[in-house]
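Weekly sync, protein design subgroup
Attendees: M.S., D.O., the rotation student, P.L. (late)

Item 1: inverse folding check
M.S. brought a backbone from last month's batch and wanted to see whether the design step gives back something sensible before we order anything. D.O. pointed out we never logged the input encoding, so this time it goes straight into the notes. C-alpha cells as presented (99 positions):
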C-alpha cells in the first residue's frame, strides 16, 4: 500500500498534485537549458540573477545544462504519465462498490 494512501486515503488527489509537479518540471527544464545562454527574460534586468546559471556554475556543471534540462524534462514526462495513469486507476477504484 503506497505511503500517501496509507496516511490520508487520498490517492486521486495525490495523482492530481503529481500532474502539477510534472507541469512545473517542464517549466523548470526550459530555465535549466537556458543556463549558459541566459536569453530568457528574467524579473529585473540583472543577468547575474539567473539561478540555474549560478547553481550549475558553482557545481562546475554549466556545460551540462542541456543534458540536465533534458533530464528534468524526462522526469516531467514520467511524472505526467504516472499522474494520468494513477488518476485513471484511482478514479476507477473509488467508483467500484465497497466489498
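Designed sequence read out in the meeting:
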Amino acid at each position: 500500500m503506497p505511503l500517501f494512501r496509507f496516511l490520508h486515503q487520498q490517492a486521486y488527489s495525490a495523482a492530481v498534485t503529481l500532474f502539477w509537479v510534472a507541469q512545473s518540471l517542464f517549466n523548470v527544464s526550459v530555465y535549466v537549458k537556458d543556463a549558459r545562454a541566459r536569453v530568457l527574460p528574467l524579473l529585473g534586468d540583472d543577468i547575474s540573477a539567473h539561478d540555474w546559471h549560478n547553481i550549475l556554475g558553482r557545481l562546475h556543471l554549466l556545460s551540462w545544462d542541456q543534458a540536465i534540462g533534458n533530464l528534468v524534462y524526462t522526469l516531467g514526462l514520467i511524472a505526467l504519465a504516472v499522474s494520468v495513469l494513477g488518476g485513471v486507476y484511482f478514479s476507477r477504484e473509488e467508483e467500484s462498490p465497497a466489498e
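Discussion: The radius of gyration is 18 Å. The mean pLDDT is 86.
Action: P.L. to compare against the previous round before Friday.
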